[in-house]
Amino acid sequence: MAVRVMIRGVVVAAVSVGALVPVALVTAPAAVADPCPNGTARVFLGNSTNSCQGAGSVSYTEAPVSKVCSMSGTHVAVDVEVKARKTTTRHVEISNGQCATFDMRTQLGNTVTVTPR
Fold it and tell me: What is this structure's pTM?
């Protein structure tokens, strides 16, 4: 009887340890975002994609821009054309690790301009 209790305890411990280890290994890499290189910006789109944008201007037509983050040594200007009561352009400037978010529901167009420093 004592042997059965001991074996059950070892099996429960092994299953518990086995269950914890894969969870820790699977969740650790997901918590770390893939950074863009210095001198670029990470642009998040409304279709759940994101990319690193280098120097220059890009108008994103495949989806509205939801968020833009500048990397170190970068100045980013974002112009978003929005439709509320009238059409207006929202101009936002960020730099050195700052982020800005944008309302995707009212966007008519957008341009992201990246200038490395």
Answer: 0.70
